[in-house]
Amino acid sequence: MIPVLDARRMRAADAAAIRSGIPSGRLMENAAEGLAEELVRSYPRARVVTVVCGPGNNGGDGLAAARLLAAGGRSVSVFTLADPGAYRGDAAANAALARKAGLDLVPLSGHGAGAFSRNLRNADVVVDALFGTGLARALSGVAARAVSRINVAGRPVVAADLPSGLSADSGELLGPAVRASVTVAFAALKHAHVFWPARGFCGRVVVEEIGILRRTLLARDPALAVAEPRDLRAWLPARPGDSHKADFGRLAVIAGSRGKTGAAVLTARGALRAGAGLVTVFCPASLEPVIVPALPEAMTRGMPEENGSLSSGSARVLLEALEEFDAVAVGPGLGTAKGTVEALEKLLASDRPMVCDADALNAFAGRPRVFSRRKRPTVLTPHPGEAGRLLRIASDRVQKDRLAACTRLARASRAVVVLKGASTLISTASGRVTVNPTGTPLMATAGSGDVLAGAVGAFLAAGIDAERASVAAVYIHGLAGELLARELGEAGLLSGELADALPLARRALRAGSENERPGTRDARRDAPFPGRAEND
């Protein structure tokens, strides 16, 4: 997992690295080297570079990068937010080295502002090194005007650690901020790199190792991390040559009601495409003739019903039947008729691992603690509206602080919670949260969440623990969307196509070719956040 740190934890990690014997100047030089290398890698034809530097260590990173870029043959202009003579510590040392290398440091005040605007128009690339993790308030004055000029210029921007104007501790916007094309995050990701809307200002995010060991970062006790491909590959072992379908889990899918048979089909299809060995759809008896031809690969069992929905009496039959299965996926398209809700309340007593989606969540609006009574692993997969109903808050409040809403729901339910949306979050009851990096706007279509519920169920049935099953399913689900986006673009996906792409995504993950996705370079250094993902 790639740790995601707030500003306080990042400062502590820096301090620990320095105490371990790494000079602070070496850390700054390493950061600058990574920044310069990424600029050259991303824009190999760029010859004219404008570097704008703030008054602190982020500015020092920019000054060192300017020197390195100039040494590499680029034409580099350097602008500083304040008097270049005001730098202190390592930043002052790099200001002196930049002058020694023949670079002029032009302050943005006075006549420098006009020169900055003219220079931006001629630049191939701009390096934003104004402010990093130390910023805690909205930019104003000269800094705000500099940000505006950078954005208006429309040139590619490579940001040092964070686009200036963003807070390391939040996805919210403080005020004006640089819109970067590439952000080089030093040592670890910060909250702004993974949470929207700030995430939208970061462009492609690359994590640059600057000499702080991973164990030093993890010692800061980060409650937040981003899923890495190498972890998922270890959780999803290759299938032996003498495999049998029973080796990969028997999943029961309890889904569908009159007018919503598609949800049952998509959930079962997602489970089969994710690798479940056997899938049986439990549905109102009248729906069997619709489901069987739609997905002949799945078995069906008709249940007692009332007006096309599961009746209260179906619970007894279901609980007995579930003894034959390894896991359960319940909720898509069930509806919330009185009898169905009564059946769902009884089904929570099942001793099978269970993923609850859609109406298996809506049935318990305002009552998330009912899930805490379960003795076996439970996964809840709400979108913001469903999470809001469970917590009795508006969906816009969920979106305003997704991290808080997700962890609150996980604590209350004692379940693993998958809060779907852009950068889907997976939280355990203990508060450990994983951010999913895969996905695309193409996935904002009806039924994609049903496919995800099936995939989570498949991994639970295969014996993977609830947290890992959730992280792996969400990652592969998003990666499948990205593979399809290469052909379809950003709109027009059918969720059945998403299910059918799950095996391709799993193959790409195992082969390591997920690193060829937009926004990635290699699993060691990159945090792949190519776009916005939505799961309904």
Structure description:
- This protein is an alpha/beta fold and 536 residues long.
- The protein folds into 2 domains: 2-222, YjeF N-terminal domain (Rossmann fold, 3-Layer(aba) Sandwich), CATH 3.40.50; 231-237 and 246-510, 3-Layer(aba) Sandwich (UDP-N-acetylmuramoyl-L-alanine:D-glutamate ligase), CATH 3.40.1190.20.
- Helix content is 41%, strand content 16%.
- The chain contains 20 helices and 21 strands.
- The strands form 3 sheets. Strands 8-1-10-21-20-19-18-17-16-11-12-13 form a 12-stranded mixed beta sheet, with helices on both faces. Strands 4-3-2-5-6-7-9 form a 7-stranded parallel beta sheet, sandwiched between helices. Strands 14-15 form a two-stranded antiparallel ribbon.
- Strand 5 (125-129), helix 6 and strand 6 form a beta-alpha-beta unit.
- Helix 2 (24-42) crosses helix 3, helix 12 packs parallel to helix 13 (338-347) and helix 15 (384-391) crosses helix 17.
Tag the structure with descriptive keywords.
20 helices, disordered C terminus, 2 domains, Rossmann fold, elongated, alpha/beta, 12-stranded mixed sheet, UDP-N-acetylmuramoyl-L-alanine:D-glutamate ligase, 7-stranded parallel sheet, 536 residues
